[in-house]
């Protein structure tokens, strides 16, 4: 897979950052370096994004386990022990040999994150991903959470499914300081992080939400994917209760001078109460977060 495809190039050119994108893109490789392997081995959480092989819907989901459940098992191979629940909308994608997946490991304790995109192969204990893109992101807009604990007796409840947001789900989104975005294009998939102060995601109606695209590394991998294919998946999680909210639908980017806003139309919502057994400490919001009212 090349560093950039036509969609990313189109957005870079529109914003006028192609030269900077070429410089930053030099950090993207296929190999998992020792420092990245060590980072993976410490994480209790991995977010994965992919398209359902039968419906084409794009979903993002969170996998969890004791540190070591995600690990590098080769120069270009990441192995994951465990799976999502059978009722998780991402489950069909994680059982298909050769599925294009995007993954992101994010550590709120250190405000570090690592993305690994590639092709999946199921195994008896989970799956492996052969890496095609591996890179780190800066800590901008990432909230710091000093510690977590495992709530051993927390049991996930039956998912609540719908075709639009409920009032409580809209409140959940508005109160969030973090979500994950899954996108794709014909040659690959990607999972990325979006962060800001609560209120940075605006719910316009039960079928539409939006967020301002804050200045970042200028690669425009996610927005480039959306320029090529509008299908997307969003994952919101409650860092205290473990509840997750997964959305699938389509997203479009609106450009107004130097400002960009992404509008997402919901087609399905899946809320999974107490889905994750992790309870994180209160956040320290990033000093880089803009005022969501601005």
TrEMBL record:
According to the lineage, what is the superkingdom? Bacteria
Task: Report residue spans for region: Disordered.
Answer: 275-294
InterPro entries, from UniProt?
A: Split_barrel_FMN-bd
Q: Name the Gene3D superfamilies on file.
A: Electron Transport, Fmn-binding Protein, Chain A (2.30.110.10)
Q: Which PANTHER family match?
A: FAD-BINDING, PUTATIVE (AFU_ORTHOLOGUE AFUA_6G07600)-RELATED (PTHR42815)
Name recorded for this polypeptide? Pyridoxamine 5'-phosphate oxidase family protein
Tell me which species this is from. Streptomyces aquilus
């Amino acid at each position: 897979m090349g560093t950039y495809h036509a969609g990313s190039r189109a957005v870079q050119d529109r914003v006028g950052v192609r030269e900077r994108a070429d410089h930053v893109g030099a950090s993207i490789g296929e190999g998992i370096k020792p420092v990245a392997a060590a980072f993976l081995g410490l994480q209790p959480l991995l977010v994965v994004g992919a398209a359902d092989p039968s419906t084409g819907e794009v979903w993002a989901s969170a996998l969890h386990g004791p540190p070591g459940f995600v690990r590098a098992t080769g120069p270009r191979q990441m192995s994951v022990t465990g799976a999502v629940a059978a009722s998780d909308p991402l489950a069909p994608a994680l059982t298909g040999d050769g599925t294009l997946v995007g993954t992101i490991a994010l550590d709120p304790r250190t405000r570090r994150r690592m993305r690994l995109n590639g092709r999946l192969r199921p195994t008896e204990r989970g799956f492996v991903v052969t890496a095609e893109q591996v890179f780190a992101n800066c800590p901008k807009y990432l909230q710091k959470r000093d510690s977590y604990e495992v709530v051993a007796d927390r049991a996930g409840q039956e998912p609540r499914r719908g075709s639009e947001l409920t009032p409580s789900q809209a409140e959940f989104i508005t109160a969030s300081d973090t979500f994950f975005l899954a996108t794709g294009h014909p040659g690959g998939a990607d999972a990325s992080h979006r962060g800001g102060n609560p209120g940075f995601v605006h719910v316009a109606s039960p079928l539409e939400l939006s967020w301002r695209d804050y200045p970042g590394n200028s690669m425009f991998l996610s927005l480039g994917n959306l320029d090529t294919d509008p299908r997307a998946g969003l994952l919101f999680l409650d860092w205290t209760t473990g509840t997750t909210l997964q959305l699938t639908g389509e997203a479009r980017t609106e450009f107004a001078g130097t400002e960009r806003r992404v509008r997402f139309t919901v087609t399905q919502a899946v809320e999974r109460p107490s889905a994750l057994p992790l309870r994180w400490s209160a956040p320290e919001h990033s000093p880089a977060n803009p005022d969501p009212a601005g």
